[in-house]
Amino acid sequence: MLVRERMTAPVVTVPRDTDYQQALQLMQEKRLRRLPVVDQERRLVGIVAERDLLLAATRYPRAGVDVGEFMATKLVTATPDMSLRDAARLMLEHRVGGLPVLDGGTIVGIITESDIFRRFVELQDKA
User: Fold this and answer.
1) DSSP labels for 30-63?
2) Which of 9, 19, 20, 60 could be bridged to 109 by S-S, CB 3.0 to 4.6 A?
3) What are the structural domains of the chain?
4) Pair 82, 7: CB distance under 8 Å
């Protein structure tokens, strides 16, 4: 099975100049744990985790600080044609809970551990 068959698409993203409080609110409304950060051409420039923004809220109680200040920029990514097994291995090797999915440098989705667990459960139910 391929990543494209299980990834969440379209993916919710924000520009790097989004206020961290806005991003945190969006994540809580959409029940997201990670939020890809993109440039104007929808190229991935980083990813920010909910835990990072919650920590930021304790350090910067006022608005005015961009998600670009907190985003991770050393990213591990998947492609739509990657197998779920390979995506899961990448997550394990790099200790991440999700991978942005890129096609030609543009973000087209996100694959998370929950997406992979769902498929695992489906396979177990069929067995």
Assistant:
1) HT-SEEEEE-TT-BEEEEEEHHHHHHHHHH--SS
2) 9
3) 3-126 (3.10.580.10)
4) no
